[in-house]
Specification:
Length: about 250
């Protein structure tokens, strides 16, 4: 997928490095670089925070400075929470993701500064553009969270997950046509017996309306069975409406 490298400049806390690795694993990135980390390395807290992304932490490459960490990369975007007063194009994480996917075949990276002050002007000057995550006003974002947002946008730019779906497990699958037909027959029989489908000349229109309503509900198999069970309970008198009214 030509995923970008994640580069952390002077990270101070092992926990944040672990959180960054975990975010990378969530969204399909695997190469982590640390430029002059300020915490002991290897770091047990980073491993603990990474959980199942420990391999990313264990395989992280450590560099003495940022220039060496970026040396073999072709396109680098720097993340910054505020205007640094330099002439640099500023883009959103979503736009950065779009551009990164368009750079197929190139070595790309997302650069993040340390927890205390972020990236300085010198570090930003080494990059092609700056990324600022839009916020409601309070711009400071935890390092792990910033990595998470950027990795998510990169993944989302190629994700084909439908915007909405219904999970169908063994009992939550959609009913077959035959199962749906039996539900129709059950409802229509009980409504006929109760006198609801009256007068006879309007029965067909009412039945079609009821079937359309059921179709729109997109019931699962389990829901069709539950509905039929409710009808049985009602018609056999297992539900005592009068008792409920008195109890109320």
């Amino acid at each position: 997928m030509n995923a970008p490298v994640i580069v952390l400049s002077h990270p101070q806390l092992g926990e944040n490095i672990g959180a960054a690795a975990r975010a990378m694993a969530n969204f399909g990135l695997s190469e982590l670089r640390l430029a002059n980390p300020q915490c002991p390395w290897p770091n047990e807290r980073a491993l603990a925070m990474a959980v199942t992304a420990k391999d990313i932490v264990e395989e992280a490459k450590v560099y003495p400075n940022l220039r060496s960490a970026l040396g073999d990369l072709e396109i680098v975007y720097a993340t910054t929470a505020r205007d640094r007063g330099t002439t640099k194009e500023v883009i959103t994480p979503a736009e950065a993701a779009r551009r990164l996917h368009a750079q197929s075949g190139h070595r790309t990276a997302l650069l993040f500064g340390n927890e205390r002050a972020g990236l300085d002007n010198e570090e930003i000057s080494l990059c092609d553009a700056a990324i600022t995550i839009p916020t409601a006003g309070f711009a400071s974002i935890n390092l792990g969270q910033a990595v998470l947002i950027s990795c998510y946008e990169w993944y989302r730019a190629m994700d084909t997950t439908p915007p909405a779906k219904i999970e169908h497990g063994p009992v939550h699958r959609r009913p077959s046509r035959e199962e749906l037909f039996r539900l129709f027959e059950h409802i229509e029989h009980d409504l006929t017996e109760s006198g609801f489908l009256f007068p006879p000349n309007k029965r067909a229109v009412m039945v079609r309306g009821i079937r359309a309503m059921i179709h729109r509900a997109r019931l699962t198999y389990q829901e069709t069975q539950t509905l039929r069970g409710m009808l049985v309970a009602l018609t056999k008198g297992k539900y005592r409406g009068e008792k409920n009214v008195k109890d109320a």
